[in-house]
Each structure stands twice: as structure tokens, then as C-alpha cells.
């Protein structure tokens, strides 16, 4: 009876299973890495690959159809294996398989190593990647030969695999099958020493040898696993790729110490092996190798509980070197030298217990969750940081973000799970951990949509814990070891015990990383590792690791001036002042040097230039201090910066107040960074009130320092001055101890310049080394002032609050005349109280010494560097001006004073405070002189800027006062170019008479009485004419009229120039008078026909001949009795021409003067060959009176024309004969003198005039 059921179950053919596995494992060097993985898991220290191109014994058996008898002699396990005796790859390691290993390798996808978290091949799939090359895998280990045949087509009984125990008999029986193994074992035996190589499984054999015969095209056609065939030379390129990364494959392995690749390209079995390349750990000797071996296996022993550990984190670190030969090259190496290459690495590893992870998981299966999180980081050193790389030869190499070459530009960080994964991290290091990876080792487990407790999410959470905790910590450990000097013997300051196993000679080639450490900082990453940079930065700052590079080792003392202490190049976060390298490069060199020097000297914080790529990450980490105005100001407080160069102080202030000086001024409080004119640095303080003891003065002009010899000034040339200027100017927004020189400072300025008794004085001059005040010696005024101070009941005040009284002036009382106060005179745009007759009167109560303590206010301590002024009566004055040197200093300060006043607001009363002080420096070659505003106004002060050099020289020679007035002073005094028209007449008056003036002992002197000698030599007048002409071109009408009073009009004599003013010049009414007056008055007679500038002035001013009556009254009438006969006759004729109007009553004054002179002056001149005699008209007899003798008649010249004589003489009136008595008396006197002397007497003309004087008002005037 047939059963009711039959077998019905899921099945999977082994070849299909393997084919699916190969789809997940890509064809490439990973095949050999899986074999290397198995070797490391087995504890092997050596791994070698042999590429064999030999067709071994038995391969030709399958070439022909052989009989069963022939088949028995092939010495193979099965004749069908003959097709796999051709070229293949042999993989050797010096570890033996254990029973568990034999059991585990038979499992497909269910590795016996799954519960051993120290094993790399936990999933049992990696070994199956070897089926990419072959369908039949065989290996010998521990006296056994094992062969896998998933097709069941090549082994006896069509078995999928078999295991043969190797004995002498079996070795002999299947010698052809073992021939490929024997060749490799013989080569390995030669490396270990025996002369005769043992066969597989012999007592001298120690290791495991895999054989992967290559799948030919014929075999691939019948294969169900893979239909890819492989040629020997194709596999060689695969081996070269494996060697290219072999130097980095060993980094995180626990046992393997060397890897070799050998090839035998000749098909003859007698040919020798040649080395394709090798990688091995390079140490100083066996002792170092043994110690390194323990370090590499430390984490494995920890997990195996071989190390007593209270389940705390365990850290280890070491520097390791690998020697690479042949095709083995460093990753990214562009050199292809045949010489051995050396790579050096710093490896840091960490194991952390996973209890915290277990607490948050519900009953995780122990086989799925390790007890420790393992992490490691490998930092590349050589050749990436070789000296030729760190020290660039090309100058352009320093134009990068940091001033070093980018040594890791060709390096690509990779993720490892002990062996490389198919994941690049974007980090500058290799990072390894016991990740939960996918079965094909291509990726890490990620979160899925499954439940939180699902296996996939459990593995993803495990990876997250590694990436967030363990990996950042071990990365930080590696950077700390490198910065701590693991590679600098004798200078190590390591966070934990670590060793360098790099040979001493080789270690010299490893440079001090220094600034290159920044290139190892994680800045960017990708994929699963994107958060690593942030976590690493947080970890380094949290543990306060000394990994922030400040620069080379520097030697500084506490003040930064002498050598005393070595400053390490790496600082922790608490002692680092971070700044973007690009921002640091944009800082002024003075700022960079000052920050560096101050930080090193102060030993508080050191400037650290952070690459721009890392700034974004570090700036988000709490606990870092960045170079900002606030942090820099806080750091500088307490530093001794007073010896700092001014340029560096300026740079610091500019940065603290950035951007553009708009930062908070409170950041400057307490910082000694204020550049002073003295060259030192002052301390910025908070100004609580209106005044501060340590206030610094502020002025645009550095010369203003001379106005305050005892005060400190901010250097106006500094950038600090420029930055603070707009803010300090607005005192309401400034709380710094800086006072701008403004109106409030003016009283102190005046007290520093002028002695108190100079006030109300018009002029101070230096003559013969003595100081004269208004022409009096200064000592007399000083004594008077001192006496007044002593007699005063109240203390004398330094400068008046208001104009009340002045020391040395008359008492404060009304003038006895009883007239009202004189009104103020206006000039320019200001109003001044000028009184030419007397000085203004002030009260002594308004005078005090400027430093006198004010009542009701507490005394303030004097600064140590401030000079105190005497305050007691009778003490020496605060300002002394007693010699030429001190006078010159005062003049200089007065010049600065006006510059200071020029900058004050127009609304200030500065000009009112200065108007009665001699504060205007007058430029004079003769003597040093100071004038007050009143004096300058009276003397018509001129400005040098208004005239050319030639004109200035002329004005100076003429005695005009010139100065360099400021704009305000010019406006205040109304100074302009036309002011010379006012100043010149006064200057000419001060010069006195000309060189050819008439003196009293000269003949005819009385003719010139009343004439003002304001003449100027024509040679000196010509430049003055040009000056006046140039001024008149732009002068106003009122200024043009002033020109008439200047001696610029030429006389008919041609020697002088005279002004057009009464008494100073003569303007004749007609040419006839010009000819008559020329002989005696040529130097006063105006030449109206002159040429040149003089004639131009006459025509420009419209000067015309004078009116006849005015000329006769003002010029001729006073001199009528002094004219000669010709002039007298012409005078009388001119009078007659005026008609009879002048003889009437109540006529104008000119007519009265003319009539009076005709009546009272001796205008009749007798020329009888002797001395001329004169008489009045009233003393003569009318020529028509025939009753008198002819001698009483006037001279014939006076009778022609008769009309003139009758009109004038008869109006006088003429007298009769009795009048002749005076002439008779004179004749008798004259005759008697002649008899007594025996000759005719010669009487001076003035005696004759005295004899003929007449009692008239005009004569008395003359």
C-alpha cells in the first residue's frame, strides 16, 4: 500500500546558493582579503599568495580517452580532477585549522565564528567568494587534504566534498594531487630554514595552504556557479591590485604581520618563484616585534577575558611602520620606484563596555550583541607627511587655506571592520570598528521600517552607538597622541600609555606634524560617518585635549621679552584663542604679532589659526573661545601692554571696536591701549562724572600738546584716534576718560600761556632781551600785580568770568567826567568794547590761580606726573615770560592757541575771552611782539596770506604790522587785503618825516609851517603805488577813498610822493599857479600829469584841480605875507578875480580868511635892489592920491592891472600920509645901523618879518 504522503520540502542546490553569494561579492581583490581574513582569525602571522602558471602532473590524462587501467596510474583522487591541475592561486598562512574551523568552513552562511565577536569572518560567506576563480577549492591543513566540489562532478562517488587524512601512504598514492601543494610548501620551507621541504601534512609542516585552480573556458561552459573563465595573466593584475592596498589591510588585523605575493609564470614545474611584492611590519628588532604583537592583540584578549578589566574602557595606541616591496605601494602613491617603500601610521584603539546599550534593549540575544564596542583609527604619517611634503619647495604652495601643503589630498579614508569595507568615509583617516555589517561586507546595517526591537534595528542601533561614541573618542585619542608627541622621543606628554614601534632611523624621517595636524581633523564626511566631525570636535573640547596648534615651540619670558620658558605648540581649548585662518590672515600684521606675543607672554590663551573647513564645526561646539572683540578684550585685561608698540595697540583697538569702530566702548575699559603722544600707552577707564583724574586730552593737532605741558594727549596720528573721533566727539555716547579740547578747556589753555597781569594790555614786545608791556618794563607791572594780590581781601582769580576789572587799572568807579559808558564799536562781524582813552575796569575778585581748590569741594589727589601751580599770594606765577626763550615759547603757544580757537564752535565765546589779551603774534624782523585784539584793530593788523612776498617785504619796511590770522580772527578783526589802505597811513606817520623835510633853521621855513611832512621817496613809493593799484581793482568804494591819504601821488619835483590830503600836498587850481609854486613847493605840489601807476591812480580816483577860493583860503592866505612879489601879485590878482563878494559880511569862512589875509598880511613887496621890504595894504597911499609923494604909492607891479589893485587894496583900506611914519621909522633905523656898522646891515628875513608882523589871527596861527 502506497503511503499517503510523499516528500515535499524546500530545497536549494548548492551551486545555486553559491551563485547567489557571488552576486553579492564583487569580483576583485576582496577575494584574497577574505582568505587573509581567515588567516588572521586563525591567528596566523604570515600570509602569502602564490600565482602558479604550471600545469601539474595528471593534467594531460584527460587529454585522451584512457582505459581504466591507465586511469589507475594518474595518482589523483579522481581522474576527473585532472582538468583542475592547471594554473591556479595558492594562499598560505602559518596557522593550522582547528576542529571548529574544519566544521565552520563547511557551512554556507552559518559560520561557527558568529558568536565570536573578535573574529572577522563571522558570517561564513566571505570564503565562498573564492568560487569566482574556481569550481573546486582544496586546502591542506593539520595533516588533512580537503576538497570542495559543489557540482558533484569531480570527486569519487560524486561527493560534494571530501577530506583525506594525509599519511605517508596517502601522500604517495595521491602524489599528483598534492604536487601543487608541495611546490609552495617547499618555497615556504626555504624561508623558515629546512633544506628539504616537508610534504603536506608532514611533521615539519605548520600552516594552511589553499589552492584555487583557475576556471578555464571549457570548464566555465559547464559550470553552474559562474561562467567566467580566467587566464593566468588576468589574475596577475588582480594580485597587483591586492598588493596596492596590502600596506593598509594589515592596519587593524590582530595577527598577520606580513603579506607576500609570488608568481611562477613559466609552465615548467622546475621554474623558480619570483616575488611580485610584499608588505611586512617594520620594527627595530625581535623585542619590538613581540611587544607590538601584544599591543595588536590587546583588544582581542580583553574581549576573551584574558585581561583583568573591570569592564571599563581600555585604550591603546602605537606608531607602526610597514615596508612595502615590489607592487605594494601606499594608497594614492604616484611614484613607481623599484626601491622598497616605507609607510608609517599611528593607530589608536579603544574598547568600551556595551552595558549601556544592553540596558536600553529588551533581552538582546548574546550572540547578536557584543559585550564591547571596539573602535580604531589609523592616521597616515609616511609618506603623506614626509619632509618633502610638509616643506613645499614651490612658493605657490603656501597660498592655501593654511600655510602648508595639503599632504592628504590623494588619501581617501575608508571604513574597516578589521578589513576594508566597500565604504569611503570622506575622513582623512581610516576608521575601524566592530560594525554590524551586511553579509557581503559592502555596507553597514541601517534602520528599517521594522519594529524597534527587530534584528535589523538592533544592528543599526549598535552602529549608531559606535559612530556617536566609540569612533569619535578613538579618533580624539589618535589626535591627542599625535599632538602629545608620540613621534617626538623625550618630549612626550601623552594622555595614556602608548609606544612607537617605528625604528629610530626611520622615525627621523617622520616629521613633527605641527600645523599638519589640522589636515587630520575631521571636517567633512559622508554617509554613515557624516556626524563624525562634529562628535570628534565635541569630544576634544569636552576632554580639554591639547590638540590646538599654536605654532612652533617658542621661548618667551612672562613679559615676552627674554628667553625663559618653552611654550608647547599644542594647547587645549581652555588656553586657546581660536580664529579662522583666513580671517587671521586678513588681520593686520601688527595685530597678529601683538596677539601672538601677548598670549605667549601671558600664558593664558594662545592664538590658534583654524582652517576654514573646520571653523564651521568648531564654532558650534560649546567651550571654545573664538577671536572676537569681547574675548580679546577679556583676555587682554591684566596683561602688561604698556611696552607694546603703538602700531600694535592701534591694531588691537581697531579689532576690539570692529566692525568699523562701532563696537562697544565698554570693551576698552581697563585696557592699556590708548596711544599717547608721549610714546606710551594709557589705560582706558570708565568716566563716571564730568571730569576724571586720569583723563587724556584729545586734539586733531599734535602740536596742541604744547598748550598743556602737564597733560597726556591721545596721539592724533594713531588709528585709535580716527576710530574714536566720531564717538568721543559726542560726549553723551562716550564713557571713556578722554576729554576733547573744547570751549571748556580754553580757561586752562589761557592759564598755561599768559601771566595774569598781561590781561587788558595792548602789546607785549621783546626789546634788547627784556619784555616790555605797552612800552613799560614787565617787572614794574608784575610788582604792582603782586602788591594788589597781597592787599586783596579775597583770593585773586586767574581769569575773569566777565569783563569787570583788570589788575593794574584804575579803581572800579565811574569816570569823573560823568559821561555815559562809551558805546561799543563794531568792526568785522564782531562787537568789541574799545575805548582809546582808558582801559576797561575789572574787579580783583574775578582773579584766581587756576589750580586753587574750590571751597565746598573735596580735595582731589594730584597725579604723580602732574606739576602743581603755586596758589599762595606772593608766590611765583604759574607762567613766567622773562627772556627771549620764554617769549618765543609764548609766541609759539599763541599760534597754537589760535589754531585751537579756530576749531571751536562759532557759538562759543572764545573771541570774547581773548579780546583783551596780547595773544596775536606779530611777524616782525625787528622784535618779537604780541598784540591784543584791540591793539591789532587800532594798528590795522594785516595778514601775510593776502600779499605776495614782494608786497610783504614792502609793508614790513613801511612799518605795517603783519600776522598769520586764522579765519575767525580775520572775521573778528575784519582783516582783508584792502586793510592795507588803513594800515599804510598810520605806518607812514610812525615812520616820521622824510629825509629831505624842511627844518626850522632852513631859509623860508615859515613858508612850510602847517605842512604835514608825509612825503615818501619816489623809489619807495613806486612799489607802494603798484600795491595800491592792485588793491583798488577789487576794493570797495569806501576803501578807494582811503587811498587819498596814502603817499602814492607824485609831486612836480619828481623826488617824492605825497597823499592827497590838506596840509600834506598842494593841488593848484591851474597851471599858472603850478609854475609860480614850483620853485619853492615842488616837493608838495601834486603832479596831475604824472605817468605810470601814479598817473593811473590820479585818473582812477578822479583827482582834479582844487577850487580857487578854497586854494586861496587854505594855502595862500596863511602864507600871503611870505610870498615873493610875483606870488603876492598873483595872489592879489586871484583875490580880485573873486570879485567884491569876499568883502561882504556873513560870507563863508574861506572868503573871510582871504579878506583877512589881504587886510592884515604884508602882501606888498618892494623890490628896490636892496633887501625886499613889505607892508600891508593899509599902510600905503592910494596911487590916485596925488597929494602924497610917489614913495607912498605901491610898487608898479601892484598897480597893474589897476583894477586888481583898486579892488583889493582899496578894500583893505589904504591909509593916508600919516601912515607913512612907520616906513620913515624903519628907514631911520636902517640908516643908523649902517653908520654904526660902517656897512649895510643884513637882517634875516624872519627879523624883518618880526618887524613887519601884524596882529591878526592868521598870523598867530602861522
UniProtKB/TrEMBL annotation:
SUPFAM superfamilies noted in UniProt: ATPase domain of HSP90 chaperone/DNA topoisomerase II/histidine kinase
Sacsin/Nov domain segment(s): 11-271
Residues covered by region (Disordered): 784-875
Compositionally biased spans, kind Acidic residues: 836-852
GO molecular function terms noted in the UniProt entry: Hsp70 protein binding
Biased composition (Basic residues): 817-828
InterPro entries: HATPase_C_sf, SACS/Nov_dom, Sacsin_chaperone_reg
Biased composition (Basic and acidic residues): 859-868
Name of protein: BTB domain-containing protein
Native source species: Cladocopium goreaui
Lineage, top ranks: Eukaryota, Sar, Alveolata, Dinophyceae, Suessiales
